Amino acid sequence: MISLEDCIALCGLTKEEVAAIAEHEHVPEIVAAALAKYLLERKRGAVIVRDMIIDDVRQAQANGDRARTQELLHVLHHFLRDHPEARL
User: Fold this and answer.
1) Helix, strand, coil share (%) of the chain residues, nearest 5
2) How many CA within 13 A on the CB side of residue 81?
3) Closest listed residue to residue 17, CA positions, set 39, 43, 42, 41
4) Does this model's pTM top 0.90?
5) Staple partner for 86: which of 6, 14, 19, 46, CB 3.0–4.6 Å?
6) How far is residue 23 from each of residues 27, 49, 57, 84, measured CA to CA in Å?
7) Is the dihedral of CA 14, 19, 25, 29 positive or negative?
8) What is the rounded CA–CA span in Å between residue 75 and residue 81?
9) Residues 36, 46: Cα–Cα separation, whole Å
10) Poorest-confidence range of 8-12, 15-19, 39-43, 56-60?
11) Helix (H, G, I), strand (E, B) or coil at 16
């Protein structure tokens, strides 16, 4: 049987990046991993993922959750390092 870790490894993102997508889309991480795989194969998919993470950062800021904001900023930094096509 294929595990969540296998799906995350196959999608091209880290566990934290997949968790950010899951949080943004309000879906389980396994679904977020499949969505990530689909998006990263599309022309502007990395930009969509970037925008999801940015939305999560803004939501954490709006909630006053400094720790979560910091975590998500690290996730965003890592994502942009690995996916330069998503940079502004």
Assistant:
1) 80, 0, 20
2) 8
3) 39
4) yes
5) 46
6) 7, 12, 11, 23
7) positive
8) 10
9) 9
10) 8-12
11) helix
